[in-house]
Amino acid sequence: MNVLVVGGAGYIGSHCVRQLIAAGHRPVVLDNLVYGHRAAVAPGVAFHVADLGDEAAVRRVLVAEKIELVMHFAAYCYVGESVTDPLKYYFNNVSATLHLLQAMRAEKVTKFVFSSTCATFGIPARMPITEDLPQAPINPYGQTKLDVENALKSVALAHGFSFAVFRYFNAAGAAEDGTIGEDHHPETHLIPLAFAAATGRRGALQVFGTDYPTPDGTCLRDYVHVDDLSRAHIAVFGRLATPGAKFFYNLGTGTPTSVFEVIRAVETVTGKKVPYTLAPRRAGDPPELYADSSKAMRELAWQVKFKTIDPIVETAWRWHSAHPDGFGK
Ligand code: UDP
Fold first, then answer.
1. CATH assignment of 2-172+224-251?
2. With a threshold of 0.85, does the pTM exceed it?
3. pLDDT (tens digit, 9 = 90+) per residue, 278-300?
4. Is 240 touching ligand 1 by the criterion CB < 6 Å?
């Protein structure tokens, strides 16, 4: 299929582009390069620099590239920033996505795969998180993703869109060949920051909150490899043939891992100490989030290749140690 990957120069999008190629599809990237990196896109892939909110530009690309399905990864994703600058999140993550859907509607491209988040669940009543738990985000980032999920339900009903929503837990790791990986500016994510602390490229890592009701007092998260995530996106394609079909899947390994456990994994893999300080809780952080992904496993035959934190960190380190300056932008 001809697949438009919106945000294909970003972290998860660029990994998905490679998986699409490996699966025999033809990815086309649309990215405004605000956070994405041209160098992250596999060589030879059609690349359009445009904003997803630019309906005319998106329509041109949909037609020129004969797009059959759109995957949407382009979003701002910093929980803390979404608390301090919510309008930035509503404009980009919600408004711009509505323009993208409008462009698709106009050009009759009605298959859509959306990257959502476990942050839509807020502080769930129980763990692990199944798809049917109530969604009550506790930060604007999660709220904007939930808003799009809801818009999609109405759009599917009214205009015959078929769509799949994937709610990621903590995307982590890098391509196994070490050629692409995570490179955010600013970087706020735990694993890359732990590398930076271990290698002395930054000061000590701050551990945000050690008084959570968890075994070691730090937050529990479900770190899932970015290539495992990508494979689920492609596995759903066959189910989108029916107009109006809609699917929701949680994607994680199901293994809760604490901040201290991540630090230990980084120390094991790098052979270096991670200097850290204990800091207050970060606004918007739920104490624990981990997935029940049995629905994706059952319906999509999705299998997690990277089941524990050490091999995930290992792939991330392969990328970071070879590219300490990331893509160099
Ligand atoms: N975290 C931390 N120090 C940091 C960055 C993150 O202690 O410098 C913690 C954060 O509070 C959360 C976990 O690490 O519990 C994962 O955070 P990250 O920002 O990587 O992903 P998020 O869960 O926000 O998507």
1. 3.40.50.720
2. yes
3. 999 988 788 999 999 999 999 99
4. no
